[in-house]
């Protein structure tokens, strides 16, 4: 490992950063109109972190007005596609050039290993902006079939002002999932990042303007959900809300849209994804997929494989193999340590929620096979070790509630019919997987799991060409792929009649 990735290197870089940040509105850094600020606590050690502008409806109004002005002027949507593409590609390159700073800001906010922030989150953020930038000059309108005396042009047009409300678990990646297609389609955006993770979003906005994105096309307002997110969702001059977060808040966002101007809503919400393992499966591959699929990012992943639905005859052997994967590959450590594969949970309140669900699982009859306990408490940070709770039934709270922590609930089954019933017995439908050597069963089962993504003999594999989103109370609308642009556009028919 080179010196630049040592803990001392990141501590030195952190010492040189200014962590007092304002909103980014109309191309400028702005304090909250009220003058209020709030201080983030660092998940890695519980110490004070960034000091941020605490926005409210006044700041929201300013940001929306800036976005509307930019959209109405046509300064971005009316620009030549090739020129817009060049701006987006410059933006992606600037993200890569500032990768270490962005990674440090991300890790400071959310507690994930800085190596993951740099090697995964920064990389996928830049790739996402580039992907949609490359698409700009490849989007065609249509000519509808008509008789010889008419021509009907069907145009895909931007909606206007988009409110993007994003979560704290993968801030840069999910920001790119919203910003890339929304801006490529010609819209203006007001981004409300989670109050826990605003730093990288503010830096992305600065880099966008540096790349040549016109002032007002991308604004960021920081603060709390009730004070910023709710006014955005209720705002009469916002045309759409793209939200990623909990199902509970997603329902509120839908209500706000209905109460105001019937703005469009796209929701990517919670999950309780099943990873189903049959006794004929490659258990080593299944163990690796289950461990990484649940424990990566400290389990703070909406589609984490938190329900291990395993055939009873191989349950004990598989759990032993999962424990071995954790010991061998998934080191939990301070996020600046080069060895860290997972780091801290986002905040003390969330850690207590995770620990509470673990305790509830044991109270309801589950048994702790290994891990799933607070560790490194002497650091002041919020660390919970990867672990498995076994003897779980699908009616227990630990099997039904989204835990958002590194805890796997193991549920045994005997027959294929029983396995499918357990897999689908959830309000969520974000993802799932099946492990078996029987390909007839694999395809039959994957078609029957009611989820937006289903993997066969692997987990969490994807690229930007594949849409991501859920069924049922995991939401609707898709991020990633060419299909993501559709939700930020509408179809407009222009009919010309000839004499």
Could you name the CATH class of the largest domain?
Alpha Beta
Number of domains: 2
The proportion of residues in beta strands is 15-25%
What's the number of extended β-strand segments?
Answer: 25
Helix and strand composition category: alpha/beta
The helical percent reads: 25-40%
By CATH, the topology of the largest domain is Aldehyde Dehydrogenase, Chain A, domain 1
Q: Could you describe the largest sheet, including whether it forms a barrel?
A: 7 strands, mixed
Tell me, rounded to a whole number, the average pLDDT.
Answer: 97
Q: Oligomeric form of this entry?
A: single chain
CATH arch. level architecture of the largest domain: 3-Layer(aba) Sandwich
**Given the structure, what is the number of helices?**
16
Question: CA-to-CA gap between the ends?
Answer: 75 Å
For CATH, the homologous superfamily of the largest domain is named as Aldehyde Dehydrogenase, Chain A, domain 1
Low-confidence stretches: none
Q: Going across the major beta sheet, what is the strand order?
A: 15-18-19-14-13-21-22
Rounded radius of gyration (Å)? 23 Å
Shape: globular
